Amino acid sequence: LETRMRLSSRHLMLASPYFDSMLKGPWQEGTKEPGSDYSVYAEDWDSDALLILMYILHGRNRNVPRSVRLEMLAKFAVLVDYYKCHEAVELVAEMWISRLEHDLPKEYCRELVLWLFVSWVFSRADLFKVITGTILMESKGALQTLRLPIPEKLVDTIDQKRQESVEQILAVLHDLLLYLRDDRSGCTFECSSILLGALTKEMNTKGILSLERGSLLTGTSFNATMKAVLNIRSPRWYSNASYYGA
Predict the structure, then answer these.
(1) Which of 75, 92, 109 is the last residue of a domain?
(2) For a designed S-S bond to 208, which of 156, 189, 203, 233 qualifies (C-beta 3.0 to 4.6 A apart)?
């Protein structure tokens, strides 16, 4: 389905460096034949999001919706990022975001990735901090970008920090295993043996023992790993003299 719009090159050039370069230069996307208007070709965009953007850039404020769904906001953000017209849409974007931001996802999901992209495009550092924090705590692997133009460096940085967080937990547990194995705990042989065996068994049961430090840590999140650690059981044992709870 082809959508045609009659647009003002002056408005487009003022609002967007992209359009300014395209309409001034010999670009294929912006051509003009003798006796005709400029023709601007755009493919793969959401037509509704593109129409809203053009309304904003042309000052047709009455045609701009006062609220949109997160899905539409993300599609709109794709256009803003591509055409570099952040300043021209800033007030409208902030109005839309303010009506949605009270319901940020608390777990890793598709909506959280959409919010990540929206907060990045519109420079909402406060939202970006909250969203990346949730991703770091809840994601189990590299960020799935949903084919959004999220910078690869950002994706890699988030996953690196996630792995480092899980790595810190594993480091503490493996150091504790060595501590008990090498009899540095100060307790009796029986005591350290029971604790070492119990810790090894619990880590294996909860899938932590097989996670190797320095490896690519996928399939587990920081929160899931921490929850598993907090649920590790301590053994109870008896001696001839008395009862101990270790």
Answers:
(1) 92
(2) 203
